[in-house]
Structure formats: structure tokens, C-alpha cells
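Response to reviewer comment R2.3. The reviewers asked that we include at least one raw input/output pair. We reproduce the pair for FUSC family protein here without editing.
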Amino acid sequence: MKETIKQLELFFRSSNFGRGMRLGVALALPFVILYSLGYFEFALPIVVGAFLNAPGDMPGSRKRMVNATLISIGLTMLITAVILFTKPFLPLLLIAMGIITFSVSLLSVYGFRASLVSFSGLLAIVIAFAINKTTPFEILIQVALMGVGGLWYLSVSLLYQIIFPKKDQNQLLSDTLHLTGDYLKLRAKLLTNTKNRDKHLKQSFNLQNQINDKHETLREALLTVRKRSGRSRYEEKQLLIFLSSIKIFELIEAEQMNYETIDKTFEERKEFLKPAKELNNVMGEHLIRLSEVLIQHDPLPSKNELVTALDKTDDSIRNYIDKFKLPQAREGALILKNLYDYQEQLLEEITAIRRTMANVKEASKVSIKRQDASQFLTLHEYRFNVILQNLSLDSTLFRHSLRLSFAMLFAYSLGLFFEIQNTYWILLTIIVIMRPSYGLTKERSKDRIIGTIIGAVIAVGIVLLTQNQILYAVLALFSLIFAFALLQQNYKSAAALITISIVFVYSFINPKALEVIQFRVIDTFIGAVIAVVANYSLLPSWEVFNLKQVLIKALKSNKTYLHATQDLYQDPSNNSLAYNLARKDAFLAISQLNAAFQRLTQDPKSKQKEFQLIYEMVTLHQTLISATASIGNFIAQHQTTPASVEFNILIKRISNTLQEALDILEQTPSQDNITKIKADEAQKKLENEYKRLAHVRDENIKQGNEELNTETLHALQEAYLISNHLGWLVSLSDNLKRSTKKYNQTILRIE
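Raw output as returned:
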């Protein structure tokens, strides 16, 4: 019960519920005022205009939100006018409908915010069919009032942001910390759970993608905030928490070890890994609790459990050495020590978040130059040339736009032929659930049908119990608020609430409520079937054939990140910014690859060609970036020796192999500049350097000098990590090249 109450409190304090309330106010206030003054005919178009332009109200830059909403208002007004003017002329209407659907759907090529504007445009097509205006004067008044409604919603949204200026950012930070905590706990399972490692790795792909999406939105929201007087105290706090959350995520990525080496080293010694596993769990839970504190404003949780878990992890290293003795225990001890260093850094960042949330004065400043901050923003290209580049069957969004246009025209023609009462409900179902990928469309179709049936059952029960129109109006409003609040979290519940809202709106206007419910369920089912069938049969876009460009981007980003790490080793002070930018781009590229893999898993089994091969490639890319991050993090956190010639030779060898894999995908000739023999010699020299340092240490121990100073420890760690990880990267790049070649032979050549 206590947990349920806590979750309810988090929901009502969330920005999602806030957006639902904004929509509720924007719809209810003009409706109540104008209805009570006897101007009901003006109330509806204003309410429709507000509803149509609400989707673009998303967290991020306020300027971009305003621009997107203004474009949405103009677009929805234009589309409504065109549909209403062409309604009496069926051939012209069908042509206009097809062109508008295709064009508006293709706007999604400009990114997520543009896709929301696109959805508003598609929604305008559907709602235009529900509007009964025939004369030019009536149509122009309708369109003008819808524009007023859109501006009214924008005003309500801006007023809400003035009253609650940082609620959206706080929610994003909370969601990010929660997801990062989940990811850290999942990493703990990967450490010792060998049987379910593949399953957990697939789960990690999804979490990485979600976290990167949150980071992108937060970059836009926080790094673009720069007033002339500087950031406010609260903005400083949010930025500090955000930067620490990024560092934590990157440390988790860098913490990924060579599991084959770990399994081999600790095959019968798993108990020494358990303290590190438990520490990850404790830190993950602490991050989740901090995410809740951000919303609930409760006192900070005690950090005693964190300190205790860290001490136990440190003790496990000494226990391991005491039991197995040096030099036999050295490799295992270095693995545990490297792992401990990552976890200690993680704890430092968690402590930094705690200090910021506790308003500690020393944590109130953050230094980031304007030009540096702008480089971390992902800028979308808004030129018309982007549209032209996507006018090809090779483009997933081009295929989707054609598919959606055909489905809409078919559904409308079907409604005309069978004289379906509310054809626009079928159209509404299609635009809401139809997505570029078949799997997501099928999943949303199922959720939509189930949600609609649940909503219909609830609505029938209420209609049979009461005939109170005021109650219908109140329930319609509240169900819409909750539906909008749950839309991103639980689509099935949102669909049920939307159905309840629509039924009660019609019940308020039309006493034949049960008939409305019946048609709503039938039309939803028809729309869902059309959407799924169209996605499967009409220019289908199976993810296995869409991976090529995503893989190319991942290879390029990994290669750039590798070279940035090499430059960081040469001169950490002057190459830190370039390294951080390359790391960010690499993580985003891998996130996109993970998202593509998730879409692949949702495709029909018969369309998942070479699934294991693709899973291997995704895993190799992920491990490659983690191994590179591990080297980069060590360099950034320690005073290292100068990069050796052997290090540069092996980096060149790995880079060439990645380029060869890239050449296979792009079908360009390759040039091998570093021979395998030369790279093997460099690898042996690095291994020998580690063995030399280990031998010196062993001689010191024999002479009774068992005290290990920090400089010697770091030298051993550096030699072990560099030689081990470079050898690992060579192996990973070779395997990736081999997998890419097989992918090219088995999939791309039969496309």
C-alpha cells in the first residue's frame, strides 16, 4: 500500500500529469465560458484548435517549442481549410487527402519534434471530416477560431512554464536517474550471471537507447538556457545533476569488462565478484531513490549503505590476494582493482548529485563555455534538401508516408462504400497506431483494441447507471487529462481513457450513447486491421534491410572515438573537449543501432533474417565502444606514461580493420596500411612491458618489500589495461569485420 501511495504521488507530481492538466485547462476554460455565454458554436472550434496543437508541447528548448507550435497552428489551419473546401468534390478531396497525408507524414524526417507537428497535421485531416461546415464564410470562421484555439493553448503552456519553470527538466532528470539506476543494476547481473547474459545484454540495449534519448532532450533544455545575467541557481543545480548523470552513464559503459577473461579468471571464485555486484545494486537503488526525491522533495536517503558496500568491495580485493597470493593472484586482483576504481568514481558522481540536491555551496558552480556547450547539441538539418534526399524507396519514412497515404485513402473509400457512420474514427485509429515499423504498429494496434474495449465497457457501465449530462462532461474532461498524462507511459490505459472521453463527449451532445460506443469499438478494430495489413503487405520496411546506414554511422563514430582516445593519450589537457564530443557522438550512434535492433526483434520471425548474426554485430559494436571508453576513462582519471609506439601501431591496426568493415558496407576498395605481423609484434611488446613490471614487483616482494605505492600500482594497472584492452579491441574489430562481411553476403546482396 505504501509503495502504491508513493507511485501515485510521483504520478500527480510528474510533468506528464502537468501536461494533462494544461490540456484540460486549455479545453475546459474556453468551452465553459463560451457555452455559459451562449456561444457554443464558437466554443467547439477553439477547443478543437487547442487540442490539435497540444502534441508539439514537449520538453526542451522553449524557443523551439514556440516555433513548432506556431508552425503546427498554421499547418492545421491550412489542412482544415483544404479538406473542408474540397469535401463536396470527391475526386478532388481524395487527391488532396492523399497529397496532404504523404507530405505531412514526410515532415518526420526533421526529427522527433517535427514528427509531433506532423501528427497534428494528420489529426487535422481526421477532425476536418467531423466538421460540418459548407459555405466559404463558415469554413473561414471555423479555421480562424481553430487558430485562436491553437494560440490559446500556446499561451496556457507558456504561462504554465512561467509558474513552474523547471518542472519538465526536473522530470527529465528524474527519469534519467531512474533509468541509469536500472541500467547499473542490470550491469550487476552481467558480472556473474553467465546463463542469462544474452538476455540481459538485449535488455541493456533498450535501456541505453532510452537514456540517450533523455540526455539529448536534456542537452537541448539545459545547454540552450543562457540568460544575459547568467544561469539561475536552480539552473546551475539542474545542469550539475545532468553532467553527473552523463558521467555515471559513461562510467557504466566503460565498466563493461571482457567477460570471457572474467569468467576464466573467476571461474571457481565468483564469491569475490559478489561485493562488486552488490555495490552496483546499492548504487542503482540509490540513484532510483534520488530520482524520486527530485519529484517528491523528500529528505535525501542515507549514504551509509553506499559506504559500507564500497568498503566490502575494497576488502574483497585484499581477501583475494591473501587467499591466492601474489604473483598468482595478480591478474584477478588487477581486474577487481580496475572494477573498484570505476565504482569509486561512480560513487563520487552520486555523491556530487547528493551535494547538489542538498544545496551545498561548493556544488553551486559549473563552468562550461558557450561555444563548448553548443557543440554538444545535436542540431537538426531543416533545409528542404533533407526532404529531397528522402524521396526514395530506400528511405523508411518515404515508404511509411506512401503506406499511410494508401491506408487513409482505402479506409475513407471503404467508409463511403459501406456508408459507415463515422469513417473518421477509422482514420483516427490509423494515424494514431501506424508507425514506420511493423512491430510497433502491431503492438499499438493490440493495445489500442484492448484499451478501446476496456474503455467502452467502463463507459457502458456508467451510461447505464446514470443519464446525467453534467457528469458526462466532467468525466470526459478528467479522462482526457489522464489519457494525455499516460500517453507516453501506458498506451493501453491511455487508449481506454480516450475512448471514455470520446464516448462522454458524444453522450453530452447525442443521447444515443450506446450506439456511439458500439461504432467506436467496431471502427477501432477496422482501423487497426487496415494499419497492420498495410504495414505488412504494402512496401514493407523490414528492419533487417534498414540496418546498413545505421551500421555505417556506428562504424564511423566508433573509429572517430578510437582516434579521439588516442589523441587524449598523447595530450589529455588539449584534447579533452574533442574526446568528449567524439564519445557523445559514438554513444548516440550506438543508441540508434540499439533502437534499430529493438525494432528488428518486433518484426515477424520470418523476416528476422540472420538474427543471431545481427545480434552479434550489435553486441560487438557495443563492446567495442565500452572497451574504448574504458581506456579513455583510465587516461582521463590517472597520470599516465607517454603513449608508446606500440600503442599507436595497434590503434592504427584496429582503425584499419574498422575501415575495412566500413568499406565492405559502402562497397569501396580497402587499403591495408598496417600488416598483421607488425601489429602482433606491438601487442607482444605491450604484454612484455606488463610482465616486466610484474616481475619487478615480484622481486620486490621476495626481498620483503610488500608495500605497494600508488605510482607502481597505477603503472601496473596502466600496462595491464592498455595491453589487455588493445588486444581485446583487435579481436573485436576482426570479429566485426568478419560479421560485416557475412552480413553483406547474406543480406545486402539478396535485398
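Residues 370-375 have pLDDT under 50 and may be disordered. The two ends are 54 Å apart (CA to CA). Further pairs are available on request from the corresponding author.
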